[in-house]
Structures are given as C-alpha cells and as structure tokens.
Amino acid sequence: MDLTSVQNAYRRHAPYYDAVFGVLLHPGRRRTVALANRVASARVLEVGVGTGLSLPAYRRGLSIVGIDVSVPMLEQARRRVRAAGLGNVEALIEMDAENLRFPDNSFDTVIAMYVASVVPNPKRLLQELQRVCRPDGRILIVNHFAATSGLRAAVERWLSGWSRKLGWRPDFALDTVTRQDTLEVMESTVAPPFGLFTVLHCRNAKGPSVIAASGVAAAGAAEQTEPRRRTENRLSARG
Q1: What is the CATH classification number for the domain harbouring 57?
Q2: Predicted TM-score of the model (pTM)
C-alpha cells in the first residue's frame, strides 16, 4: 500500500461510494458518530471524512473539521455540506492522515472511520491522531480487523494480495491499535454487518509533553499556514 494507490482507488470508488460502501459501512458509522455526540465537548477532527456521509449526524454544538486525501470524495462532501446547510462544519481539507498539518492538542476528539487499514503506515497514523488530540481526549476508531483463525481468516489472507486494487488491507490486525502504550482502549463493540467491524473508544493517554517525531515541525508549519487554509476550505465547503 502507498499513498498513490489509495488515491487512485478512491478516485475510482467516488462515483458509487455512497450507494455501495455508504450502505455497507453505515452501522459502524452511525455508532461511532453517536458515541462522538456523547463524549465530545467542542472541536472534532474526522480523519478520512470521504463524501461526508457522517457530517449531518453530528450534533450542532460540535465544531467539525474533516480531512481526506481524495479530492473527488471531498468535492462530494462539500456539496453535501452546502445542501444541508451544515454551519458546524468548520473546514473540509485535502490532507494526508499520516502528516496532519495541525498543531499539537488541536482537538478534544479525533475520529478515524474505516481509515486504519487504508493508510500506508498505520503506526504513523496513530501517532498523528494522538499528537493532534489533547491529553485525555478521545480517539474513536471503527475498522475491519482481521480474524485470527477459520475460513474468514483464510479469505482475508487471500484478499490481502489485492490490497492495492481494493484500497485497503483485508488482513489488518487489531493489535496494531491495541498495543500502543499511550492509547487506552476503554470500550470495544462489534458492528454489523456480520460483526465484520469493530468500534474502539480510546483515551489519549499521552503525557502533556509527548509529541510524535514530526510534531514540532508540523506545529510550526500549521501555525503559519492553517488559518489561511482553514478559511479557504471553509469558503469552498459552504460556497
């Protein structure tokens, strides 16, 4: 998996994403947003916002920033925001989830729906999610995780050879997330269909001074570029 493969896959998926994946992934998305509406208090980052299917479901008291690496998907999300008049959507920004252009501790809740098995480097993704989330904030992840045995595990191993075409890893292991020392899994629930997806409610257990290796550089760049970028994307999101 590499970034170009992901972008190409979602460029292909964009025209029919809502009709196919939107339906398939709806239960996990609904549960995750419901959880966010319960635990989030102010500013929320949704990583991999896609076509914006989740955006209308957030309570209006939350300020939502969405990022995605796919321009065609973001274009659909912006149309959705305009059509629904979602004034609480602060910005929709083209951005690589492994290199977030936000200062440390920018959000009290960070959400990654169906993203962890898509990015080239999941460990880097998790570091970035924790970096931009405040200490003791919430990180919500919903994803497909590989079975450890049986027929499903065999099928997932076979499908893994098609990861570049699919745009995601069918054999993505749960412990990629759960073995992080500074990420405490507070709750884990299975989501339909067929229990294929898992919703993780995590606490960002990093210390206040813990920053990923790129954190200082990312923060410095963000301080200079993000206010302007946020304004530009807010305008493009709302027309």
Answers
A1: 3.40.50.150
A2: 0.80
